[in-house]
Design brief:
GO terms for molecular function: ATP binding; ATP hydrolysis activity. InterPro entries: AAA+_ATPase, ABC_transporter-like_ATP-bd, ABC_transporter-like_CS, MetN_ABC_transporter-like, P-loop_NTPase. This is Phosphonates import ATP-binding protein PhnC 2. The protein has 253 residues and is an alpha/beta fold. Helix content is 29%, strand content 25%. The radius of gyration is 20 Å and the shape is globular. Bound molecules: adenosine-5'-triphosphate (ATP). Adenosine-5'-triphosphate binds next to helix 1.
Length: 253
């Protein structure tokens, strides 16, 4: 008897994870802040991390970039052998206000430059300035390259900070409350920008305190409560009540 013919089944191929966090644990003094966090972010994906104050969102991002030292678990970033794995932007934007927008973006490459050509010298190499202009173009601010950074609005400064992060050429972009200090219009623009960068193939994870923005722009909502992930799914899969419960049943340990 011949075997029945196999019918090919079209399955969506899951995009490969670029950022892989497994079993992440972090303790500050006696306090356990992260209790085995598993999180993957694929190229082209925008993940929103939601959770109440103190639930551990920032600590996850800090452990990825080395601003905090994990006590257990692993963080790996594919394709980051010869370049920084993850670049990060913050709510506090930290541009050098009296330097030009372009110089601030060039500074994203400092880790790749020799000291001789670094921030303290008057001019960055031409190739880097061109690359930085391209990064500024991606965030829609090429026309402001020669303004002092301090003259830009908060939303524009956050976009410059994102351009500076792009200049690090990292495959992963982390954003810690990138829109919390911005008005609704500027916040929308920054979220649209993060969406576009994800669509261009970057793996993006953003801590947000605005569930509505997360629903509109992110591919996946991840809820953190007391150092544990309590849900992870598309905006359609996660009910509004689940999100609301993050903030009503206690976030911090
Ligand atoms: N350097 C530190 N030393 C001691 N405890 C810390 C430190 N950093 C964070 N924590 C504690 O770890 C817990 C998680 O902090 P984390 O900043 O990750 O929370 P979060 O979810 O990002 O909160 P928020 O929304 O307020 O930014 C909090 O209880 C916080 O007090």
């Amino acid at each position: 008897m011949s075997a029945p013919a196999l019918t090919p089944v079209a399955r969506p191929v899951a995009a490969a994870e670029v950022l892989s966090i497994r079993g992440l644990r972090k303790t500050y003094a006696e306090r356990t802040v992260l209790e085995g966090v598993d999180l993957g972010v694929a190229a082209g994906e925008l993940v929103a991390l939601l959770g109440a104050n103190g639930s551990g969102k920032s600590t996850v991002l800090k452990c990825v970039v080395g601003l905090a030292q994990a006590d257990g678990g692993t963080v790996s970033i594919a394709g980051a052998d010869e370049r920084p794995g993850a670049a990060m932007v913050f709510q506090q934007i930290h541009l050098v206000r009296r330097r030009s927008v372009l110089d601030n973006v060039c500074a994203g490459a400092l880790g790749r430059l020799s000291l001789r050509r670094s921030w303290s010298t008057s001019a960055f190499p031409r190739a880097l300035r061109e690359e930085s202009m391209a990064c500024l173009d991606r965030v829609g601010l090429a026309d402001r390259a020669h303004d002092r950074a301090g003259r830009l609005s908060g939303g524009q400064q956050q976009r410059v900070a994102i351009a500076r992060a792009l200049c690090q050429r990292a495959p992963v972009l982390l954003a810690d409350e990138p829109v919390s200090a911005l008005d609704p219009e500027a916040a929308e623009q920054v979220m649209e920008l993060l969406r576009r960068l994800a669509d261009d193939g970057i793996a993006v994870a953003a801590v947000l305190h605005q569930p509505d923005l997360a629903r509109r722009h992110a591919d996946r909502l991840v809820g953190l409560q007391q150092g544990r992930i309590v849900f992870s799914g598309s905006p359609e899969e996660i009910a509004e009540d689940e999100v609301r419960a993050l903030y009503t049943t206690g976030g911090a340990r």
